[in-house]
Amino acid sequence: MGDCKIGILGCAGRMGRMLIAATHDRAGCAVVGGTEPAGSPSFGKDLGELAGLGPIGILAAEDASALFTASDVVIDFTVPAASVAHADMAAESGTALLIGTTGLTGDQIAMIEAAGNKAPILIAANMSLGVNLLLEVVEQVAAALDEDYDIEVLEMHHRHKVDSPSGTALALGKAAAAGRGVDLEAVADKVRDGIVGARKRGDIGFATLRGGDVSGEHSVIFAADGERVILSHKASNREVFSRGAITAAQWLNGRPAGVYSMKDVLGLSK
Ligand SMILES: NC(=O)C1=CN([C@@H]2O[C@H](COP(=O)(O)OP(=O)(O)OC[C@H]3O[C@@H](n4cnc5c(N)ncnc54)[C@H](OP(=O)(O)O)[C@@H]3O)[C@@H](O)[C@H]2O)C=CC1
Ligand SMILES: O=C(O)C1=N[C@H](C(=O)O)C[C@H](O)C1
């Protein structure tokens, strides 16, 4: 079998550049192209130069449909509206699509999942092994502790991040809610400002910090009278995400149409 041909949408972004390098470093994978939106200052630049590898003779292009035709797996770390459009292209071409973009609305996720009827699509707010293990542990701890333990999800990211809470924080909140047997939407408290009143028993709270170059830090705090259980993950750099994404892309290559998660890749599915 030849190399897994990987196309990278948003190839000049923080993650896009990491993904070019991670694909280049991975045996059995080859970068076949990358896109940036029209008008991007990186449009037409060599992908190898963008990733700090030196020229590889492939230039950042605009035509995402052509990238789906040329690739075995296309990777999307862009913005929500673009991810939805890319899911439609996956459905049209049947090409596998891996989505790491966060900040998607419920409607946007439903549209992406519908495209999973026609192409293999993996969507995950966090591609690191550690966070995906943490999701499992949080669900178990939340199932073991009752509502005397107030659950708070705390996250910190770099100053450029545009969505809040992070996709990972929401996934951790969802895991905690699943452990408790409740719907996150019914108990989530995402905004506190002014005289908001005492904490409601059973709520799952979120707090967001932004600053500097923090790659991604998440904690789930179970706070009771007399003790706190704190489960945390810290990404030291973005390589954990890009390496995880390429592992997931290799896993997705050749799968039947469907919607997959990192749990499937890591063998954590129940
Ligand atoms: N799942 C995971 O493990 C991780 C997820 N993320 C998520 O990935 C996303 C991207 O993060 P990050 O790389 O830091 O963000 P960046 O803003 O650095 O990168 C996004 C890139 O996508 C480009 N883009 C926007 N629209 C399109 C389009 N229609 N077609 C092609 N490219 C497009 C942008 O171009 P331009 O700037 O010119 O508009 C930009 O280069 C975020 O949602 C983030 O939360 C990040 C890290 C890990
Ligand atoms: O924007 C980022 O940088 C990250 N986003 C993801 C999220 O929203 O959870 C994953 C990671 O924490 C980095």
Automatic annotation (TrEMBL):
<keyword id="KW-0520">NAD</keyword>
<comment type="similarity">
    <text>Belongs to the DapB family.</text>
</comment>
<dbReference type="GO" id="GO:0016726">
    <property type="term" value="F:oxidoreductase activity, acting on CH or CH2 groups, NAD or NADP as acceptor"/>
</dbReference>
<feature type="active site" description="Proton donor/acceptor">
    <location>
        <position position="157"/>
    </location>
</feature>
<feature type="domain" description="Dihydrodipicolinate reductase C-terminal">
    <location>
        <begin position="130"/>
        <end position="266"/>
    </location>
</feature>
<keyword id="KW-0457">Lysine biosynthesis</keyword>
<keyword id="KW-0220">Diaminopimelate biosynthesis</keyword>
<keyword id="KW-0521">NADP</keyword>
<dbReference type="InterPro" id="IPR022664">
    <property type="entry name" value="DapB_N_CS"/>
</dbReference>
<dbReference type="GO" id="GO:0019877">
    <property type="term" value="P:diaminopimelate biosynthetic process"/>
</dbReference>
<dbReference type="Pfam" id="PF01113">
    <property type="entry name" value="DapB_N"/>
</dbReference>
<feature type="binding site">
    <location>
        <begin position="100"/>
        <end position="102"/>
    </location>
    <ligand>
        <name>NAD(+)</name>
    </ligand>
</feature>
<keyword id="KW-0560">Oxidoreductase</keyword>
<keyword id="KW-0028">Amino-acid biosynthesis</keyword>
<dbReference type="GO" id="GO:0009089">
    <property type="term" value="P:lysine biosynthetic process via diaminopimelate"/>
</dbReference>
<dbReference type="InterPro" id="IPR036291">
    <property type="entry name" value="NAD(P)-bd_dom_sf"/>
</dbReference>
<dbReference type="InterPro" id="IPR000846">
    <property type="entry name" value="DapB_N"/>
</dbReference>
<protein>
    <recommendedName>
        <fullName>4-hydroxy-tetrahydrodipicolinate reductase</fullName>
        <ecNumber>1.17.1.8</ecNumber>
    </recommendedName>
</protein>
<comment type="function">
    <text>Catalyzes the conversion of 4-hydroxy-tetrahydrodipicolinate (HTPA) to tetrahydrodipicolinate.</text>
</comment>
<comment type="pathway">
    <text>Amino-acid biosynthesis; L-lysine biosynthesis via DAP pathway; (S)-tetrahydrodipicolinate from L-aspartate: step 4/4.</text>
</comment>
<feature type="domain" description="Dihydrodipicolinate reductase N-terminal">
    <location>
        <begin position="5"/>
        <end position="127"/>
    </location>
</feature>
<dbReference type="InterPro" id="IPR022663">
    <property type="entry name" value="DapB_C"/>
</dbReference>
<dbReference type="InterPro" id="IPR023940">
    <property type="entry name" value="DHDPR_bac"/>
</dbReference>
<feature type="binding site">
    <location>
        <begin position="124"/>
        <end position="127"/>
    </location>
    <ligand>
        <name>NAD(+)</name>
    </ligand>
</feature>
<comment type="subunit">
    <text>Homotetramer.</text>
</comment>
<dbReference type="GO" id="GO:0050661">
    <property type="term" value="F:NADP binding"/>
</dbReference>
<dbReference type="GO" id="GO:0051287">
    <property type="term" value="F:NAD binding"/>
</dbReference>
<keyword id="KW-0963">Cytoplasm</keyword>
<dbReference type="GO" id="GO:0005737">
    <property type="term" value="C:cytoplasm"/>
</dbReference>
<feature type="binding site">
    <location>
        <begin position="167"/>
        <end position="168"/>
    </location>
    <ligand>
        <name>(S)-2,3,4,5-tetrahydrodipicolinate</name>
    </ligand>
</feature>
<feature type="binding site">
    <location>
        <position position="158"/>
    </location>
    <ligand>
        <name>(S)-2,3,4,5-tetrahydrodipicolinate</name>
    </ligand>
</feature>
<dbReference type="GO" id="GO:0008839">
    <property type="term" value="F:4-hydroxy-tetrahydrodipicolinate reductase"/>
</dbReference>
<feature type="active site" description="Proton donor">
    <location>
        <position position="161"/>
    </location>
</feature>
<feature type="binding site">
    <location>
        <begin position="10"/>
        <end position="15"/>
    </location>
    <ligand>
        <name>NAD(+)</name>
    </ligand>
</feature>
<dbReference type="Pfam" id="PF05173">
    <property type="entry name" value="DapB_C"/>
</dbReference>
